[in-house]
Amino acid sequence: MLPTAPSNVEANPGERPRERLLARGPGALTDIELLALMLGNGVAGDSALALARRALEWAGGAAALLGAAADDLRRLRGFGPARAARLVATREFVRRGLLEETARRDVLGSPAAVRDYLQLTLAALPHEAFLALFLDSQNRVLAARELFRGTLAQTSVYPREVVKAALAENAAGVIFAHNHPSGVAEPSRADELLTASLKSALALVDIRTLDHFVVAGHRVVSFAERGLL
Length: 229
What we know:
- The chain is α+β, with helices and mostly antiparallel strands.
- The protein folds into two domains: about 15-95, no CATH class; about 105-225, Cytidine Deaminase, domain 2 (3-Layer(aba) Sandwich), CATH 3.40.140.10.
- About 45% of the residues lie in helices and about 15% in strands.
- A hairpin with a 5-residue loop joins strand 1 and strand 2 (about 140-150).
C-alpha cells in the first residue's frame, strides 16, 4: 500500500498543513490534511479540510478514494469535474511513477512497487480484469497490458492469446495479476488451474512465469509466496 499518515485526526488549523509538510515531510500530515492540500481551496460553506473529510468518509479510506471513478467523484458535494479530475490525474500520475520504477529495476528486488502498482490499477474496478506485466531478461517491466476483461464473477483467459502477447513484447518473463471484485483475495481453484495452464504454455516458448497476484481491496496475494507456482 502507499504510505499514509498514522492518524486521520485533523490538526489545529493554525498549524498550517502546507508549511508543516514542507518543514517535516508528508508523513507529518493526516490523510485528511494531505487530501485537503491536493484539493486546494474549499467552497462556500465548506473548507478544504471539510471536503477532504467528507470524501474520505464516503469512500472508506485513501486507497478506495484514489480508485474511485471520476463520475462518482464529481457527484460529491463540493467536488464537481475540476476536483474529480485532479484526483483521477493524481492516481494516474502515481500509477505511472510506480510502473516507471519497475522498468528501472529488477521487480523481484522491488516487490512493494509492483504491489502498489497492481493495487492502484485493479483494486477499485467493478469488473474482473486480467493484467500481465511483461519482463525482460533482467526482470524489468517492458510493458503492462490488460489482456482480458470479464463480468464481476468471471473472465475468460486464453493461453494462446497470452503467449502471442508475450512474444509480441519480446518478453523473457511474465507476472500475471487479476482482481476479485467480491473483495475476497484468496486464489480460487480455477485461478490455480489457469496459472498452471499459462505457465505450461509460456514454458514451451522459454518464457518464465514469475508470479500471479490476486488483488482485492487492500489485499494483494502472491501465488509465489503461497507456493502455488
